Model the fold of this input.
Amino acid sequence: MSHLMNTYARQPVGFARGEGVWLFDETGKRYLDALAGIAVSTLGHNHPRLVRTIAEQAASVLHTSNLYRIPKQEALADRLAAISGMDEVFFCNSGCEANEAAIKLARYYGHKKGIELPTIIVMENAFHGRTLATLSATGNRKTQAGFEPLVSGFVRVPYKDIAAIRAVAEHNHNVVAVMLEMIQGEGGINIADEAFQRELREVCDERGWLMICDEVQCGVGRTGRWFGFQQAGVKPDVMTLAKGLGSGVPIGACLTSGRAAGLFGPGNHGSTFGGNPLACAAALETLAVIEDDALMANAVKVGEAIRTGLAEALAGVPGVVDIRGRGLMIGIELDRPCGALVGQALDAGLLINVTAERVIRLLPPLTFTEQDGQTLVTMLAPLVRAHQAQ
Ligand SMILES: *Cc1c(COP(=O)(O)O)cnc(C)c1O
Done:
């Protein structure tokens, strides 16, 4: 440990292997995985189809670079376009890189319109990553503190506040885009209601702004639809993906449509690893399994069962402010900081997360069954009850 840079307050456990929705530590103790490596392990662990696909791809070719055509990348772009209605895809390796691409694209779009200092409207409590541009877009001072000067060209408004967005439009003529999560993950599972999503789409159309949806956490089936924006039936101009797309193999994507498509040409952007054959094969297989095994319908059903189960098990417990979410993206808001629950759950054999200080965050694999959900509720409820009794 001593040679690792101290960037994470890690739990004192390491996992030796995984099997479905369970992880096993070096002593053989098992843990129910209700976090999926922060919304990454879409298909759980050791999924036979994904394992086979990765092995076959590794035995075929791993990397060739974007100096050549990559058939798996073209196939994945076709597939993503088909399920999202977007037109074009740029592939990278992570969420912050996908957002960097989106930010560069929005600036480029502005310059083409003659706006020299293009500005992007971003949200309070947003999380977009930890590179300089994406931490500047992030709405959390802790992420930014000590890394100033921040990247300029962002103005911040309260989440879901359409009036604040319209007010910015009145005095700031450099705005080129609005960037947001349809469900804020790190911010505490905050959901943009459908009316707001539609109004935002309207404002962006009126003003000629790009609507940029960061679906890095809520995308790829987690909410019961392929993408969070599909709930309200609006379509963004730019969408970013990463986390769950490769079910554990790193891959990110920036998708464009309409006026955001066709902007970049050779030399404008790139990535050495982005869209390599291995990552694209893993993503194609992830999407195929989601479809073949009806995992989006499963996410809706199991997510509802978990929320209902939690509501029943926590009825009457003081200080449970809200149990919310969509599909298998669930938050339990308490009235006090509850970070200690992460370690207590770990001891009990359950992997959860706490974000925004007092929101328990559940992001289980989409392969979670109703019985897994019941096990989760049975394990978690007594811990919350004891925590709130203190
Ligand atoms: C995790 C996350 C990111 C950053 O992704 P990385 O792969 O860690 O760079 C960006 N946006 C959202 C909404 C996220 O949840």
